[in-house]
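Chapter summary example: a protein plus S-adenosylmethionine.
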Amino acid sequence: MDAETIYDQVRQRFSSVATDPASERRFEIGWTSALKLGYDAATLTNLPVGAVESFAGVGNPLALDPLANGMTVLDLGCGAGMDTIISARMVGPSGRVIGIDMTDEMVNQAQQACAESGLANVEIKTGMAHALDVDDESVDVVVSNGVINLCPNKEKVLAELHRVLKPGGRLQVADMSLVDGVNPELLERVGEWSD
Ligand SMILES: C[S@@+](CC[C@H](N)C(=O)[O-])C[C@H]1O[C@@H](n2cnc3c(N)ncnc32)[C@H](O)[C@@H]1O
């Protein structure tokens, strides 16, 4: 599959997770998934419903290391903005969070959720992980949840993350990787690359 086909399929899939999360049948998303992945129930309750219902992460990257007051954070593939909003609250008004996602419907959800949360320190924009509209050496922490596995050009994405991170900055990533023993038939099935 070429990269453009993968992008089209990823957009199609996640636009429906954004606009009609109840229709998702292939993997668990939303509240149940977030709780299983270790997010705190009280934190989830204080988030806009849309951000939690369309949460499609695979782990809890924010549990790896706390974000400090004043930090600049990039949420790569921010989806409906759940980690973005939690990050924005962690870094406080003197910090800043940039959320970037290639699916317009996810970007709309995240923008709406940030507006509902009354956050002034967040910017959400449409963009591709391999060509980020973010300044060189401007970010303290890149947070990403379930995104890099969907990118066909992982080396370019990692090079971009390296470019935007300040020296000594860090990546907090929850993601999936291929393990030995995956059936070649499964790998061939269109769409299964993101399951
Ligand atoms: C599994 S969802 C996770 C969304 C969000 N991080 C969360 O935890 O709910 C993956 C997200 O990554 C976005 N995405 C996938 N590939 C991307 C790429 N190459 N550039 C930017 N965004 C991408 C999709 O649009 C989707 O919103």
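Key point: The first helix runs from residue 3 to 19.
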